Amino acid sequence: MPITANDPKRKTWLETPPDTDFPIQNIPFGVFLTRDDIITIGTRIGDYAIDLGALHQLGYFSGIELTDDIFLQDTLNDFISDGRKTWRLVRNRIADIFDNENPKLRDNNEHRKHILFTLDEVEMQLPVQVGDYTDFYSSKEHATNVGTMFRGKDNALMPNWLHIPVGYHGRSSSIIPSGINARRPWGQTLPEGATEPIFGPSKLVDFELEMAFITTDANVLGEPIPVNEAEEYIFGLVLFNDWSARDIQKWEYVPLGPFLAKNFASSISPWIVTLDALQPFKVEGPKPIMEQLPYLQYKGKKSYDINLEVYICPENGEENKISNSNFKYMYWNMAQQLAHHTINGCNVNSGDMMGSGTISGPSQDSYGSMLELTWRGEKPIKLSDGTERKFINDNDTVILKGFCKNENVRIGFGECRTKLLPAINM
Amino acid sequence: MPITANDPKRKTWLETPPDTDFPIQNIPFGVFLTRDDIITIGTRIGDYAIDLGALHQLGYFSGIELTDDIFLQDTLNDFISDGRKTWRLVRNRIADIFDNENPKLRDNNEHRKHILFTLDEVEMQLPVQVGDYTDFYSSKEHATNVGTMFRGKDNALMPNWLHIPVGYHGRSSSIIPSGINARRPWGQTLPEGATEPIFGPSKLVDFELEMAFITTDANVLGEPIPVNEAEEYIFGLVLFNDWSARDIQKWEYVPLGPFLAKNFASSISPWIVTLDALQPFKVEGPKPIMEQLPYLQYKGKKSYDINLEVYICPENGEENKISNSNFKYMYWNMAQQLAHHTINGCNVNSGDMMGSGTISGPSQDSYGSMLELTWRGEKPIKLSDGTERKFINDNDTVILKGFCKNENVRIGFGECRTKLLPAINM
């Protein structure tokens, strides 16, 4: 089925700001609370949030096989379960409804009142109930940087890294949408040179610049997903900040991996941009340095050219851009990650979320964490207000932004914005 | 509120086999499919499955604040969310309904037909939808055994082990109830002496003898649970077999922990035995070898004397007992695990599951995995049919059993039984 929603020539009758992340070619999916305290599934064009529940009730999706309440839900999980064909039909229809040439809704004031909200009238929620969340570790630059810091240049990459899209399980309960605050965590740390741990608020709270993809029901327990089919099961992507407490992590993570250093909060942007919308931005990925096992060998382009930016905004201050990276730097792509995740028969469900791992680029200003940007705090970053940052300070807001751009169209993710509150009193 | 359901003198009018795991003092909770293809929440006394949905509809829970459909659900999550007071009222009431002296249901044939099922008339399901599953690593004997094998006797325990109830996140989608088969997984492994991995079915599939506890909604994001309150949030326990592919684990697990080596299947027993039912079996835990940080220091008894057994049953063969362990061997108890898990503010929900980690005892016949029982395969176990096992063979069934016993009563968990099917063809 053609993705007519992507037509770069299409214009909408809605007023949209120039250079918006959400032109009519984007049509992402999210969940929001309306001014009437109703939760609904919606999309966004320009600075309008669009109530898909109301659109459906008013008959705008007639002819598409959808249950009556598919959009009147507090998560996208059931809609995602409906599968790629339905996503595509719905997205194409939405493009059609808001197309400049289509008078049906455009000229119906009554309907528009029920369907359109300005952004300040809605409160974005988590778009899915995340059943399981997995985080990968798929940027070679990031793994090399961290490995160099902890084991020296010659042993930077672990022996398995070039063979395996290394991943580990994360905590889904503490995933929060953009706009919800995180808290500096308490925990055990081992001071430099000490033999006994101490207990206190983490001193080294860091962000991690990641993207995450959301899956549909992909397989039954026991059956792998072939690498060249994997993208069929990916609904879309969000920006993802995998908050990390480096001092807690260092003391706890051997031998079973990060735990409390990560599960105090993980932030995502609220609009899931569909893989369909990103099709114009497919690019070749990095060439494998070493031959990969057949189940990881793929055909065609499976990387995406998505510009990524990180900003720190001190309390009452301004946004300081501290990193420029790109999703295309990932050594292992999403199809390889999903093929690897299921090669042992592990089952993947609608609403599962898979993080990319920190996305660092080749240059120092493209690193995806404070750990790397300041090289363990050795080279602090200067902000516009004259203060310095080695890691994230109390009341700093960390903002991730992401967008694709070509000569025709810009498809963006908006923001993933999280303020770090001070540790609670104990 | 007194736990009258635990009264050891109580007898039931139901016929129960001598030495059953499920006397009237147990009253566990589970979910089953009935002969009429209806899913319901139930309990078990002797060899009867009891439909709590039907009991509720017939008015047997009058006076207890419960929504009408609380038992007509396919998971226990909502009932567990109702909290400890409700669990206790319902358990006390069930004990009362089936008490020898109570004629109400005993003498009502019509009601009994709707409420009582023999075990062969029901099909046990997963008792909860597991939102997040965490696995700990809390048996000192197990950590020492594994550490000795991989790093030698002098470095067996990692420096953090005596300070932290080490834990890591697991995969909830592949948790299966007793009776569902597992599959030997495919994966990458690094043969002895090789520098490149190979791809094939795991050769070293192992069980892990664990118990797991199920929580209720415990805290909001950002707020820790104090160690001495933690048990208030524990609904009950199940037997847990954390299937592990040792060869896949060895190659993949550095530096972020086990992943595909574990997430192909994890089996649990279907009846959740409440923490209330286990109160008579509270015992002192092992003395701390080293002082623990204040947030991990607890008052009173928080360990439980639960006998654990492991059996291997070859296809068409008989059950061979291969291990006798006990839950009381755990160095870190459940209250410490939950206090640690939340000390950074991580939020815990109804239906979350926390595994103990492999429970090995002090003697060689009390180890909780083939890895330890056969010492990496060096000392194979002889079965009654003359065959040997280093790890688990195709079509072997692994059975975990668990029970508490004192002079008055036996409270058991039944079985966690899983057959390992051969790897799929690729």
Low-pLDDT regions of chain A: none
Structural class of chain A: alpha+beta
CATH architecture of the largest domain in chain A: Alpha-Beta Complex
Distance between the termini of chain A: 57 Å
| Average of pLDDT of chain A | 97
Instruction: Tell me the helix content of chain A.
Output: 10-25%
For the sheet with most strands of chain A, the description reads:
8 strands, mixed
Largest interface, counted by CB within 8 Å of the partner chain's CB? A-B, 63 and 63 residues
Query: Quick one: CATH class of the largest domain in chain A?
Result: Alpha Beta
Q: Figure out the total of helices of chain A.
A: 9
Q: How much of the sequence of chain A is in beta strands?
A: 25-35%
Rg of chain A (CA only): 22 Å
The overall number of domains of chain A is: 2
Number of strands of chain A: 26
- What quaternary form is this? homodimer
CATH homologous superfamily designation of the largest domain in chain A = Fumarylacetoacetase-like, C-terminal domain
